Structures are given as structure tokens and as C-alpha cells.
Amino acid sequence: MERVRKIALSKIFDKQVSSRSAVDSVFSGISGVHHIVLDFSSIEFISRSAAHQLICAVDQLQNSRITVEMISLFPDVIQMINKVRQSIKSPKKLATHVEFVSFSSEKEMEDFVLSF
Question: Domain STAS spans what residues (predicted)?
């Protein structure tokens, strides 16, 4: 029986985790472990819905006495997870800051969009 399982998310996803089903796929088929290490190396973005699903999945695992450790998180990923955790605790919606970007040409905008 495997006691600890390390899951390198970069082997499953490119640079982002963007859906609930993506999170579910990470945890499907996990059994017989007592500790899971989620390695977020190279994961630069997690969507709000994916963060919510991650929190729910981790809570469910912890209720089943499986500990989950998240390592190598980018600051933006930490911020999204924390915002979602806070919104779960409070029924009040929190404002999210959105940065606006201006472009002087269509080419400049295209280069910006394609940089992601």
C-alpha cells in the first residue's frame, strides 16, 4: 500500500488548471494513500472554479483522514485559493481587482494575447 503519493501537476497540465473536471481528474483513482503532495511547479494560473473544486476535494480527503500538502505555488495561485476560501466562509462576494490594459495598435494587442 502506497502511503504517500506525490502528484506533479505540471505533468498533467501545461501552465494552468482551469476547470472543475480538471481537478477531479487529479484525484480520480486515488486510494490506499495517507498523504498526498500536490506539486504546483509551473502552474501559473488556477481558475476560480478549479480553486473551489480543489478546496472541496482537499476538505473531503481530509475528512477521510488523508492529508494533502500543496507545494511550489505561484503567488497568483495562492491568492486565488485564498480568495475562494474566504468566499466559501463568507456568503458575501468579494471584489476582485481587474487590471485594464491599453494597446496602441492591434498588433500590440495580438502580441500581448499570444504571450499567454
Answer: 1-81
- Report d(CA 40, CA 8) in Å as an integer: 7
> What grid cell was written down for 85?
476560501
Q: Which structural domains are found in the chain, ordered by start?
A: 4-90 (3.30.750.24)
Give the three-class secondary structure for 15: coil
68 forms beta bridges with 36
Task: State which H helix or E strand residue 7 sits in.
Answer: strand 4-8
Query: Per DSSP, what are the bridge partners of residue 38?
Result: 7, 70
pLDDT digits (tens, 9 = 90+) for 4-33: 999 999 999 999 999 999 999 999 888 889
Cell numbers placing 100: 485594464
Q: How far is CA 59 from CA 1, 16, 17, 37, in A?
A: 22, 22, 18, 14
